[in-house]
Amino acid sequence: MAAIAETIAAVATPPGQGGIGIVRLSGPEAKAIGEGIVGGALVPRRVKFAEFKNQTGNMLDEGLVLYFVAPRSFTGEDVVELQGHGGPVVMQLLLDETVNRGARLARPGEFTERAFLNGKIDLAQAEAVADLIGSSSRAAARGALRSLKGDFSKAVFDLDQQVLQLRVYMEAAMDFPDEEVDFLNGGQVVARLGEIHEGLNLLLRGSTQGILLNDGITVAILGAPNVGKSSLLNVLSGEERAIVTDIPGTTRDLLHVDLTLQGLPIRIVDTAGLSDSRDPVEVEGVRRAEQQAVEADLVLWVSEAGREEIRVWPGSDNTIRVANKVDLTELEAGLAQRPDGQSHVLVSAKTGAGIDALRAHILEKAGFAGDASTFTARKRHLLALEEAMAALQRGQTLIAENLQTELVAEELRIVHEALGTIAGVVSADDLLGEIFANFCIGK
């Protein structure tokens, strides 16, 4: 790959005031620019205290400077970090000075993009950097670290090598049709395809868990007025976030609460009670509640235990029926079967009875199996794996019907290329642009 001629610079610390602020440079002129600002030579991997000055000799700040020589740096290029006082004005003065000396402002994610382009990390690891920064739970952070270390990439690479080996044998059979290839005649193709199928299944399951860990889910609480929706929100969140009264219609607008259940990020949305009121405010509240139900990953449909529902919710596969106020009945809290054969969770938002069963049912309904050994993943990874699986299954069908070497080899090529897009071995420029545009500037 051709060397990158431009040197880029950006503030690498969050905006606002702080004790320390960092301006980062990367590129062929990073060392010269850094030495010009500190007025002295930089030694690789040695911390130096210095005054930061502009080209006229006026002091801008003072602090530490670090120099990492290519290729032993995050980007694989010469990298300089100026660590000064974390005020926005000071940081801007330092950044402006780097530009005055020949650097240009970095695009969002350009440092990590250069790390990818220079072979320091693959594309899945690059995305894990952004996932780690944006982690909304400890479990998500652990998963992002696993991906950053290369656990996900290694699993994809190992499977990709199995596909490549099989392609080599299949295409060898096409190139030398007159030769007797025992590999094609002894059922080994079927066995190899089965092994790849099993590996893809494992990756698909892990990626599904990784997406849940990374993106989380949205849970909407719906029900008639005064069935205890806001009380349920409060007990699930562990704090008094919603106003609770005996007056129907207390909640008029959507109320959002973010929490985690066993590492899974969840946004719970309390909605207005569904009623036939003609009050314009309540009508709008009902409209928003119903819209939220459409957009949510899960819906908690709340009614009162032991009472006929005032308003029946049609429900769907993503609906969990919750019977609240079980403490006012003789019924036992927990997961149970309704007379109509459907399951529901009996709880008491007042006493907390049945809430643990509800939490467990939410996780089960979401398909979350826990964060143990789970890596973070993105929807594009899942789509690539699904494309690979579809092609593999077509190949298995061809083998089952009749060994058609050329067609099977073509399906394996599709599998190979789909897997390659995950780590960036096969990637279009527009895909790279979209991925790195979502990074923060300075990373």
Molecular structure report:
- It is a single chain.
- 45% of the residues lie in helices and 18% in strands.
- By secondary structure, it is an alpha/beta fold.
- The strands form two sheets. A seven-stranded mixed beta sheet has the order 8-9-7-10-11-13-12, sandwiched between helices.
- It is flat and about 80 Å long.
- Mean pLDDT is 85; it is low at 241-251.
Helical percentage:
40-55%
> Which strand-content bin applies to the residues?
15-25%
- The low-confidence parts are 241-251
Q: Report the total helices.
A: 14
How would you spell out the order of helices and strands? Answer: EEHEEEHEHHHHHHEHEEHEEEEHHHH
Global outline = flat
Report the mean per-residue pLDDT as an integer. Answer: 85
> How would you characterize the largest beta sheet?
7 strands, mixed
- From the alpha carbons, calculate the radius of gyration and give it in angstroms: 29 Å
Q: Which structural category do the helix and sheet elements fall into?
A: alpha/beta
